[in-house]
Amino acid sequence: MDDKTPPPARTMPRQSWTFSNDVNAEIRRAAATGIYDIRGGGAKRRVPHFDDLLVLGASISRYPLEGYREKCETSVTLGTRFAKKPIELKIPITIAGMSFGSLSANAKEALGRGATMAGTSTTTGDGGMTEEERGHSEKLVYQYLPSRYGMNPDDLRRADAIEIVVGQGAKPGGGGMLLGQKITDRVAAMRDLPAGIDQRSACRHPDWTGPDDLEIKILELREITGWEKPIYVKVGSARPYYDVALAVKAGADVVVLDGMQGGTAATQDVFIEHVGIPTLAMIRPAVQALEDLDVHREVQLIVSGGIRTGADVAKALALGADAVSIGTAALVALGDNDPRWEAEYQALGTTAGAYDDWHEGRDPAGITTQDPDLMKRLDPVEGGRRLKNYLGVLTLECQTIARACGHNHVHNLEPEDLCALTLEAAAMARVPLAGTDWYPGKPGF
Amino acid sequence: MDANEAYAETTVLDLAATPLREVNATLQAVSGQANHRDFVIEHPRGAHAIAVGLDGPITVTVRGSTGYYCGGMNKLATIRVEGSAGPGVAENMMSGQVIVDGDASQYAGATGHGGFLVIKGNASSRCGISMKGIDIVVHGNVGHMSAFMAQKGNLVVLGDAGEALGDSLYEARLFVRGSVKSLGADCIEKEMRPEHLAILADLLERAGADARPEEFRRYGSARTLYHFDIDNAGQY
CB pairs under 8 A, 24+ apart, for B141-148? Predict the structure, then answer.
């Protein structure tokens, strides 16, 4: 072939969208190991989210409030329906349930310290209540889970509220999972399990099924605690309208609704990415259920799953939530996935920001681990301070937006303060596409 | 001695006339130092959550059948149901005793951490589900999926056991005198050693059961599901 001969015409190498490199890598991993991928965290795929909404600030048709000078309240009271002792929080942002076992004792203490300084509540998880957590949490919500690990009437009575966990957003319909690496002697003793075994807790409660039973279960818990404690019911988002309606019917004081971006300590990746619906899509149907039953604001709604900024908080409240809950963001505030540990993330075959093998107990940041040496990396006092700072910023950002919309309480934010950037977000949030007065499914069109 | 004399030193709480909240609050308020420690509940009429959350060494006799969760989360108290018990009797019991003269519905003794549950009749499905240290003696039969995910404690069945006994069992001990329709995943028959006979003898005596330990077979965990193994995937 001489220089004057043109090269033969060839097609460019073409990668398949369906069989992309990462899809093929997972096929190869599955073929090599024979086990599904287990990881922590929530859905990583891009789904319509609060970023797809914008806030309509005040101008002539509405007037704003003066920043720093005109008050914008943030307090919220949870459990006003039946409980004798509702919970009063200074901010509408709570810390979600995360177990001792999945998290270190230092991490639980840090969450308690930070939440307390910020004037809000923290929540136990699927491993019982620890002294570190109770001692450092002024307001502690005690989760009542299918496993009932460590469940006892004394802790029920010293809790400030009880959260009956039906499901979580990362895995609606799935049970708990804590692998052997993290079942230390202390974790095992709290759960009445042998140390070192893989623990898979049930996905259904052992002594009730369905809303009629749940009503009786709530009655029992109220009788045991003298009708003092607010009873929350937490569900993973799948059919929010009906699940919220049934939780109300069963007698819940508060409904906690967790979207698919909400994290978990460990479950199958296929569960996290493919089961459940986005946080943005669940709020309006949930609020609709409360309104149809005439209990919106009487039964409080807490939403969680991918809350990161004060804008997210403001938008969730504007869609009708009474409060939000954070889990993953709180861990990041403590130091999870911090680039300072990049060399160690690399050694684990990952990188800062992508580390999600929380179930393996080797967290370089010392948060999702029971390893005594790694745990020491998290100073609970410093961690608590960082969480307090972060909660403070979320609150200030939310207030900034509420004032811009002319509201003197963040609960006065409303759907009319929002518009959507995409058709999907407009349909899910039931707010107009930006610049229009229309959203898909709007009556009258 | 007529019934009135027998209850002369007891406090009678009539659920036909007194709200459940008041009945439970009365029972929950009794401390270890109280003079009046014996209570009778009349006309339970299948009410739910009777005598739950008790926290003192008192005796409660329920004169009739109960609904869901009678004796739930009991500590220290001795509760006797002179009838049958609905679902979840003595659920999550910590200590003390619950005795059911009749039959028990589903989930009897579910997640119990301690204490002693005696069922003189039969128990339904999921008896002892997720038990965490409670001892349960059933004079009759138990239904399917009994001792599912049972972690600790002893379940003694003088009659027969239904399908899938001890499915996904952890370290609880199961003793059955009659037939077992089938064993659940990871549940196997195990050797009855002298220490097991001793445990069984004590439980049978305390339960007032007319049976000899040697008549029972012991079942427990094969522990093959303790660590995930792809070859066991069919059992998950």
Answer: B141/B178, B143/B106, B144/B181, B145/B184, B147/B172, B147/B174, B147/B187, B148/A206, B148/B184
Q: Verify whether the Cβ–Cβ distance A224 to B132 is below 8 Å.
A: no
Identify which of A417, A413, A334, A400 has the alpha carbon closest to the alpha carbon of residue A76: A413
Q: Which residues of chain A have pLDDT under 50?
A: none
- pLDDT for B230 equals 60
Confidence (pLDDT) at B1: 42
* Type of residue numbered B2: D
Token readout for B36 is 């009046």
A195 contact B CB<8A: no
Sign of CA dihedral B228, B232, B234, B235: negative
Which residue of A lies nearest to B152 if distances are taken between CA atoms? Answer: A192
Sign of the alpha-carbon torsion through A247, A249, A252, A256: positive
The pair of three-digit structure tokens given for residue A365, joined into one six-digit string: 């940041």
Q: How confident is the model at residue B232 (pLDDT cuts 50, 70, 90)?
A: low
Looking at CATH, the fold of the domain delimited by A47-335+378-426 is given as: TIM Barrel (3.20.20)
The dihedral formed by the CA atoms of B160, B162, B166 and B168, expressed in degrees to the nearest 10: 170
ipTM, 2 decimals? 0.94
DSSP string computed for A348-373:
TT--TTT---GGGS--TTSSS---HH
3-state SS, residue B207: coil
Task: Give A-chain residues touching B106 at CB under 8 angstroms.
Answer: 207
Q: Measure the CA–CA gap between A303 and A275, rounded to whole angstroms.
A: 17
pLDDT grade, residue B33 (50/70/90)?
A: low
Cα–Cα distance between A342 and B139 in angstroms, integer?
A: 62
Does the pLDDT at position B2 exceed 60? no
CA distances to A61, A362, A365, A371, A377 from A374, rounded to whole Å, are 56, 8, 7, 5, 6
Number of other residues whose CB lies within 10 A of the CB of residue A293: 14
Provide the token pair at B219.
């079942």
Instruction: Choose among A179, A206, A224: nearest Cβ to B52.
Output: A224
In the sheet with A122-123, reading across from the earlier edge strand, the strands are: A93-95, A323-326, A300-304, A254-258, A231-236, A161-165, A140-144, A122-123
CA distance B119 to chain A (A): 17
- What domains appear along chain B, each with residue ranges and CATH number? 10-235 (2.160.20)
Among B55, B110, B228, whose Cβ lies nearest the Cβ of A207? B110
Positions of E strands within A190-329? 199-200, 231-236, 254-258, 264-268, 300-304, 323-326
SS (H, E, C) A312-328: HHHHHHHCCCCEEEECH
Give the closest of A192, A219, A223 to B133, CB-based.
Answer: A192
Average pLDDT, chain A: 95
Residues 6+ apart with CB under 8 A from A84: A226, A227, A228
Read off the tokens for A60. 């002539």
State whether residue A299 is helix, strand or coil.
strand
Q: Measured between CB atoms, which of A34, A148, A225 is closest to B130?
A: A148
For chain A, give every domain's residue range.
Answer: 47-335+378-426
Chain B interface includes A192 (CB < 8 A): yes
> A153 vs B170: CB contact, 8 Å cut-off?
no
